[in-house]
Amino acid sequence: MESWILFLSFLQVVSCLDTFHYVIHGDEANFEAATKNCQHEGNLTSLSTWKEVQAVQQALSRHLQSSGEYTYWIGLWRQKQECVEHKAKLKGFKWMDGGKEAEEIKWKEEPESTCTHDRCVYISIKYDGTSVVDWGLIGSSCKKTHPFICKVKGEKQTPAPKDCTIPTIGGTHDHIHKVGNPSKLDIICDNTKTYNLTCNTKTLEWITKEGSTVNLSSVCVPCPKGFEKSYTGQCVDIDECKNQPCKDNSKCVNLKGSFQCKDSTPQPPSGILPTDPHTHPTQPNTQGPFNTQEPDGTANPGSIVLIDVTESSPDYSHIYIPVIIAVLALLLLLVVILTIVACCRRKKRKRSKNLSGQKASKESMALRDSMEKIP
C-alpha cells in the first residue's frame, strides 16, 4: 500500500514539472528591453543544463536561414559592485530566473574584471547552415544591442489538423504564433515590416486581414532598389514622382525601379497661340496678299492666328552703309596719293631750277674769264 502511495506521489510530482519552449527574437534590443519583452511570456533563457543548451541550439537551427556567426542575449547578468569570480563556473554572474545550476557553461572570452557597472552576457554561435557547430558566452555592457532568446513556460503549441501549419519563411524574420490561438500568426521582417495573418480554415492558407494570400517564401526577402513590399509580400514599384524630385519645372516620369526628369514642353513664341487639334485646317489663300474672306463664326477663337500682311518697302540700310564707308576710304586714299605726287613734283622742279642757276652762273664766270684774257 505504501508503495502505491509513493508511486502516486511520484506521478504527481512529475505531472507538476514545468515544461518550456524557446522563442528566438531577431530584433535587436539592449539587455533591459530584451528582459521586459520576455517577461510577457517567461524570461530571458538560461543555459544551466546540457539539455537546455541542446534545446536552444535546436531552436536556433530552425530559426536561422543561412550560415554565419550570430549573437543573442541570454538571462545571465552581474550587478555593479559585484566582482568577477574567475574560479566559479558562472564567474560571479547570476541567472535572471533565479536558477543556481551551471552544468554546461562555456565561456568564449574571460569576463572583464570590473565592479563599477552592470555586466550582461550574450551567447555567440557559429551556424553552418544546418546546425550550431560552436558556441560560447561573452560578457558585455548591458547597453549594447543584440537579438535575444526567450524561455517560455509551457509546450510549444502546434496547429490543430484544421489549422494552417507554420510556414517556411524566406529572409530574416521573427514569427510569433499567438499563444492559445493557432489561427493567428504575426511575421516581423528584418526591415520592421509586420504581417498579421489569419488562417483560412477552408484553404488552410495564411491570409491578410484584406483576405489576400501572402507569398511567405519571399515575404521578408528585401526588394531591389526602387521597389517596396506590398501588403501581400510582393515587390512593387515605388512611385518616386509623388515626392516631386525634379526641379526647374522638369516633368517627372516614373520608371520601374527609378524615375526620370524631362524638360517641360517648350512654350510657343509670344504673339502666336498654340494650334488646337480640334480646329479645321486653314484653307489656302487665293485672293492675293490681302485676305478679305469673312471669318468663320464657328471657329474656335483660341485657334485664330493673327498675321500682319501690311506691305513695306525693302530696307537696304545694311547695304548702303558699307558702300558709303568704302567710297569715303577710297577718296581719302586718292587725296593722300595726289598730295604725295604734288609734293614730289614740287621738289623736282625746285631741284632742276637750282641746277639751271648753277649752270648759268658757271657759264657767265667762264665768259668773263675769257674776255679778260683778250688783249
Measured by DSSP, the beta-strand proportion falls in 15-25%
Number of separate strands:
15
Strand order of the largest sheet: 4-3-5-6
Q: What is the N-to-C succession of helices and strands? A: HEHEHEEEEEEEEEEEEEH
Query: What's the number of helices?
Result: 4
Query: Whole-number radius of gyration?
Result: 53 Å
Low-confidence stretches: 1-17, 266-312
Main β-sheet: number of strands, strand sense, barrel status? 4 strands, antiparallel
Structural class: alpha+beta
Give the integer mean of the pLDDT values. 75
Terminal CA distance: 211 Å
Name the overall outline. Answer: elongated
Fraction of residues in helix: 25-40%
Description:
- This protein has helices spanning 2-16, 31-38, 50-63, 317-373, and strands at 20-29, 42-44, 68-78, 94-95, 119-127, 132-141, 146-153, 173-177, 184-189, 194-200, 205-207, 227-229, 235-237, 251-255, 258-262.
- It is an alpha+beta fold and 375 residues long.
- It has a four-stranded antiparallel β-sheet. Strands 8-9-10-11 form a four-stranded antiparallel β-sheet, with no helix packed on it. The protein has a three-stranded antiparallel β-sheet with strand order 1-7-2.
- A hairpin with a 5-residue loop joins strand 12 (227-229) and strand 13 (235-237).
